[in-house]
Amino acid sequence: MQYTLGVDIGTFETKAVLVDQNGKIVEQAQKAHKMLVPEPGWAEHRPNEDWWGDFCDVTQSITSHSNVDASKIVAVACSAIGPCMLPVDRDGEALMNGVLYGVDTRAQLEIDELNSEIGEDRILEIGGNALTTQSVGPKILWLKKNRPEIYKNTHKILTSTSFLVHKLTGEFVIDHYTAANFTPLYDIHTQTWSTALTKDLIALEKLPELRWSSDIVGRITKAAAQKTGLPEGIPVTAGTIDAAAEAISVGVSESGDTMCMYGSTIFMISLTDQRVEDPRLWYAPWLFPGQHASMAGLATSGTLTHWFREHFAKDLNLDSSFGELSEEAKQSVPGSNGIVFLPYFSGERTPIHDPDAKGLIFGLRVDHTRGDVYRGLIEGIAFGTRHVVDTFVECSTQTNRLFAVGGGTKNELWIQTTSDITGLDQIVREKTVGASYGDAFLAALSVGIVKPRDIGKWNPAKRVLRSRSDAKLENNYEIFKHLYIATKHLMKQV
């Protein structure tokens, strides 16, 4: 029997799975960490502690607690939150905390500057993406302007995944899917790093080598073996962003397949035959040559449920609180008795791309309960998801199959509400571990154990969640859209 190892670094937690050649999970490990918010609009992780430290802890746990001979692990793949921005020196050591993905909004001025210098249409034409808080390029410019000494000493700009791969192999690499988020430094037409849009942002040799996600890019070094408990010499893939690995884990493989990841944020990926060009969405080459991905993400989702529990459910037992809140919400009705919730607590990513957007609870009355408000929060997240789905439709991106994945799938109220509001049925696979399981599959793919479509055998469908239409939800969705338009100008003033 052969085994592969998948490790994923999330916003708040690291997960690892050891999987046999038939897709059976034989061991799991996880470790929690925190997102740092040193200033409003900033979001950071500590690379050595939260990324590499967690990786070593979970792999050591896997190798020590499983009954599998570590010599039978034939490949390792990892994924992580992304796209992040991390400057490192020649030895690959971090020069500062990692700047996280679109939830970090520090580079808005740099977005405006690059748009002005280059032109928004030109950026979209060459880079495939409008500049948003998700883009790494403006964050590099922020680094250049605000941390000149660090910029001067930077040997490479890495992401969370490429940092881990370097720690494991000594190689500086990045997958194409992640690299497409480095706008305006990636040319989607040539699929190469490019100075076509800017020559002054950073030297291209300071960017990692481009590879495809399932490419074997190196082997575990002696030093990494000592830290991780893994045998020296195991092949390591280029890896990817966590959301892409999540999509792989549930069977997203053909045009029209769409994933909805329920986690600290909502993230959606839809595969297409042709590149979709729209500034409201993100684009990247898919993990394999010849395929394309349209993507979208909300800034706060599961994070909001944690916020609500922390501030408004202190009376509940921590271990059972989410279940109890869901039961309270079920005592309400679809439409939350007139409450409409804007979930823009960290600005918003797609489709409005507004870092100044603010959260809003509209329609409150003295007779409302905690359950009404919590249900309104869940519905607000689902309205944001519906807004993305509508944008996909407007861009002629067809959803033939919608796969649900992530920790949020355990929240029945959340996923059922999402189906009801979007009007889409959702396929839930047997295994909802998520990105780490997708990583294990990519590792198996890299050494020829499986073929891309074998994920259906590894992780068959468990059930289909059917959508249910509701007039109150439709009405509140229209209010949801109007509320943002009506208050947008005020949001910038608070």
What would your notes on this structure say?
The protein starts with a strand and ends with a helix. It folds into 2 domains: 3-243, ATPase, nucleotide binding domain (Nucleotidyltransferase, domain 5), CATH 3.30.420.40; 251-431 and 460-494, ATPase, nucleotide binding domain (Nucleotidyltransferase, domain 5). The chain has helices at 47-65, 108-118, 120-127, 136-146, 148-152, 160-169, 176-179, 222-228, 242-249, 302-312, 321-330, 370-394, 412-422, 435-446, 455-458, 471-491; strands spanning 3-9, 13-20, 25-32, 44-45, 73-80, 86-88, 98-99, 156-158, 173-175, 186-187, 192-193, 209-211, 216-219, 235-237, 240-241, 257-262, 266-272, 282-285, 292-297, 340-342, 360-362, 401-405, 426-429, 461-465. Strand 16 (257-262) and strand 17 (266-272) form a beta hairpin. Helices cover 36% and strands 21% of the residues. The chain has a 7-stranded mixed beta sheet with strand order 18-19-17-16-22-23-24. It has a 5-stranded mixed beta sheet with strand order 3-2-1-5-15. A two-stranded antiparallel sheet has the order 4-7. It is an alpha+beta fold and 494 residues long. The mean pLDDT is 96. The protein is globular. It contains 16 helices and 24 strands.
